[in-house]
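We treat protein structure as text, and this decision shapes the records that our systems exchange. Because each token names a local backbone shape, the row as a whole describes the fold. An entry from our holdings is shown next, in its original layout:
>
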Amino acid sequence: MHECVFRTLFPVPLRDNLGGQMFRLADVDPQARPFQLTVGEFGRLCKAYEKICQHDPRLFKYNARGSRKDFFDGEDGEQQDEQPLVAQDVCV
């Protein structure tokens, strides 16, 4: 499964960092095709995604199929003060 497919789980400003981070945390080859992944590898990807989202709970609310509004805007459209999560912030 190519890493780029999973990047859509994250808001655009974070995709490059967190998409790669998810595969590193899961210890899964980002170039593997879907039919090459084991059930265990899919499970590790899910756990890695959960860990990243627990570090920044705003990610749980992100809907990749939703509007293209900036994810880090507040309810009223005002920019929130919180800084976006970067890949180095997530620990194994």
Q: What stands out?
A: Confidence is low (pLDDT under 50) at residues 75-81. DSSP finds three helices and no strands in the chain.
